[in-house]
Amino acid sequence: MRYPTIADCVGNTPLVRLQRLLPADSSNTVLLKLEGNNPAGSVKDRPALSMINLAESRGDIHPGDTLIEATSGNTGIALAMAAAIKGYRMILIMPDNATMERRWAMEAYGAQLILVSKEEGMEGARDLALAMEAKGEGKVLNQFGNGDNPEAHYYSTGPELWAQTQGQITHFVSSMGTTGTIMGTSRYLKEQNPAIEIVGLQPAECAAIPGIRRWPEAYLPTIFERDRVDQILDISQEEAEHTMRELARREGIFCGVSSGGAVAGALRIAEQVTNATIVAIICDRGDRYLSSGVFAPR
């Protein structure tokens, strides 16, 4: 008998119905994909394992090599787990305003952490990763430009949602960071039914929502294809955090700020349509944001 490894536990996450945040008289169904149920706690487990496995299969990397990646948190944790599974040394570069929970999780998996300033941000982290690769210090997986990132969602997240909704999904809502989740899932779902509406979330001007970005043009992920997204919504810091807290207190769903933003977007869509099946991605768990104070009583 073959028993599973931890890598076999990535994906096939639950899809649950929103109960109390949706008005009782709504004709719509809002469903949430609980990606925090992945072993390293986020949707990024899928592309992290995919990027390493597919790079290995092409002979681009070999166990024992050093991998480098810029991250705001979830991808770093997922890559640290995947590197531990597969036998790689992992160097992660992130802004120093990341919560301690995220830093500690990466280090718990054995990754080396390098911090850049809040002012340098993810752009600075990405530049440093490429500079280190140029010096021969390791191989950058480049989640922002690596087709293996959306490919993971084309072959897992998309098919799971289609099967779990029995083909009834009408809208897919996802926060956008690297854009891998929305790119791969959109591609799959549109192949099944071109009428499915794909909705992306970005932070409103001046909002700082962990995991999602309003990228300067020069840093826009090269995996992003604008025509795969039907509508882009701006989400304010206040709306994302309020919805995140409401999800915990009224639905028992403990998640991060970007997930709160995705659900806020789904609820906006639900106000505009009827008889729809709207799916939003809950990309991680709330416990990695506790030290930031976002769950403190208001």
From TrEMBL:
Its cofactor is pyridoxal 5'-phosphate. This is Cysteine synthase. SUPFAM superfamilies: Tryptophan synthase beta subunit-like PLP-dependent enzymes (SSF53686). InterPro entries: Cys_synth, Cys_Synth/Cystath_Beta-Synth, CysM, P-phosphate_BS, TrpB-like_PALP, TrpB-like_PALP_sf. Keywords: Amino-acid biosynthesis, Cysteine biosynthesis, Pyridoxal phosphate, Transferase. It comes from Thalassolituus marinus. Gene3D superfamilies: 3.40.50.1100. It comes from the Bacteria. It holds the Pfam family PALP.
